[in-house]
Amino acid sequence: MFPRSLTRAIHTTARRAAADSGAAATATKVTLNLNTPFQSFFKNAQVDLVQLPGFDGEYGVTAGHTPIISQLKPGVIKVHVQRETEVQSFFTAGGFALTHANSVTDIACVEVVKLEDVDASAAEAGLNKFKAALASAAEGTPEKIEAQIGYEVHQALVAALQSN
Q1: Looking at the structure, do residues 153 and 97 belong to the same domain, yes or no?
Q2: How many other CB atoms are found less than 10 A from the CB of residue 64?
Q3: Phi/psi of residue 83, nearest 5 degrees
Q4: Do residue 146 and residue 100 come from a single domain?
Q5: Model confidence over 85-142: pLDDT tens digits?
Q6: How far is CA 160 from CA 49, 63, 71, 133, in A?
């Protein structure tokens, strides 16, 4: 038999899940929170669609999406405030996205920048700098690891700028 406290916890969790699924069924928008440690880009914003660069592949979140926790790789976050007319693009070096059953999506990233604010020539210069550092760093050193991370982030940034 389950202890009384465990039974109570199970019933409480089940009630919350039922309430959340009811809210998700009636939601027509995604409530978006996009934050870094220094800035909030969206706070409880009602949007139609969020496209995310998931570590296992890109995916979109609309109202009623299945709950998911996803690690984000370097890439573009596209926020469709109005599905076809107002789309905002952001570049992230990585982070996490949590989509809840109540159509709330929380995105936490160390760095986020509006794609339109990125200097393409600076991104190319960064890519070349990290490519050279990667080639010259000794295997297994912190310098090699830092160069690899910098190269991958700048490679994704340059690709995002070219496709935008």
Answers
A1: no
A2: 16
A3: -45, -50
A4: no
A5: 889 999 999 999 999 999 999 999 999 999 999 999 999 999 999 999 999 999 999 9
A6: 19, 26, 19, 22
b/e sequence 93-112, b meaning 16+ C-beta within 10 Å = bbbebebbbbbbbebbbebb
Q: What is the CB neighbour count within 10 angstroms for residue 61?
A: 21
Distance CA(150)–CA(14), nearest Å, equals 44
Structure tokens at 156: 């994704």
Q: Which domain holds residue 124?
A: 118-163
Give the distance from CA 137 to its chain's centroid.
30
Return the H-helix or E-strand segment holding 32.
strand 30-35
